[in-house]
Amino acid sequence: MERIFGRPKGLTALPFHYCPGCTHGVIHRLIGEVLEELDIIEKTIGVAPVGCAGFSLDFFSCDFVGAAHGRAQAVGTGIKRARPDRIVFTYQGDGDIAAIGTAHAIHVAARGEKITSIMVNNAVFGMTGGQMAPTTVAGQVTTTTPYGRDCALVGPPIDLPKTIATLDGAVYVAAASVDSPKNIIQAKKMLKKAFQVQQKGLGFAFVSILSTCPTNWGLSPVDSLKWLQDNMLPIYQMGEIKVTDEVKAL
Hints:
Blueprint: H1 24-37, E1 44-48, E2 63-66, H2 72-82, E3 87-93, H3 94-100, H4 102-111, E4 116-121, H5 151-154, H6 160-165, E5 170-177, H7 181-199, E6 204-210, H8 214-217, H9 221-231, E7 239-243, H10 245-248
Parallel strand pairs: 1-2, 1-3, 3-4, 4-6, 5-6
Antiparallel strand pairs: 5-7
């Protein structure tokens, strides 16, 4: 019997152990498919910090390195400079890359480091207790904002891809979501292009992906998707935010 669907070679056989309804697993699969389709599994090195993103070390077939909270891009920069022949990507949550790792995110892009960074944005600090993150939307209840995020007090959420896009070293910046089949297909196209940018040595590539966090949102998996659609998609700019001429030629 012909096999038409299966686990991509870019992923290990270990079952995902994320919370029910969490879309980290969807994003993992997309990356695993891209690694296989581009035939770069053996030459790729991933970097993940602590938090839910840290579990990714177990799930990808490529080599992986753990980093301190917020420092994945610094570690990734060192790996790429030491081994420029390797494909290096960082896999980070929004609380990681947009909070404690903000300085690295800005300067990696400013320098045009030839790595690929993926931000999973679920608008909250996931593993560390559900606290407000820089990406928490207005009025959102978290463990540190029990009455909802007050933008008059702490400011509005940060749309990091738009900030990264202003820096000359960033040659490809995109934002996607994995809340629907259509958006999942689009997310994969963006991830594939981000890795192709690195294959060509064009500069820094950054992809942000909206994700759910049913546990910390206090919602069912189905209701979490609806919450993302109603509260995050209207706030965060989607699509290819920056595509340089060199990237358009890919």
